[in-house]
Amino acid sequence: xxxxxxxxxxxxxxxxxxxxxxxxxxxxxxxxxxxxxxxxxxxxxxxxxxxxxxxxxxxxxxxxxxxxxxxxxxxxxxxxxxxxxxxxxxxxxxxxxxxxxxxxxxxxxxxxxxxxxxxxxxxxxxxxxxxxxxxxxxxxxxxxxxxxxxxxxxxxxxxxxxxxxxxxxxxxxxxxxxxxxxxxxxxxxxxxxxxxxxxxxx
Length: 202
Fold this sequence. Notes:
Layout: H1 9-26, E1 36-37, E2 40-41, H2 45-56, H3 58-73, H4 94-111, E3 114-115, H5 117-145, H6 155-162, H7 166-186, E4 200-201
Parallel strand pairs: 3-4
Antiparallel strand pairs: 1-2
Helix pairs in contact: 1-2, 1-3, 2-3, 2-4, 2-5, 2-7, 3-4, 4-5, 5-6, 5-7
């Protein structure tokens, strides 16, 4: 959140909140099992990762998303469907988890120079697109190289699977951009979170 090299206690607290939000968003299917379609869980992680970038900024959001990934790899059941552990590295969907770090950074970087409404929306949609492209190509490589592919598997089939959550993620990405911009104008820009930054809010 700040341009200096040290994070404050407030920064780290809010960063940890996003780790918790990612865990909750990953396991929304525990209360709505019908949201697993074609073997792909429909989660809220993409929206929360984007929101982390928009609110925390590029540096702290990367740390927050990295902590989420590392906690899951260490065995905490915080990935989708309460999965965790090093074995999840071999999951075809692990690319999406890696991409959360990247999209949080991209979203944060895009809004750090000028926090205008169009940039918030654009940053959110660009981040969501990166999430899908990175995740889809990781999944394709996983099924080709180390995971048992289903009958009739193809690159086009992956995008058929991803077409199911895509409308939801587009709407949530736009919603994240709107929410983050309103939060910035109404609260964050007037708080100590931005007191050492020189950012134009539009």
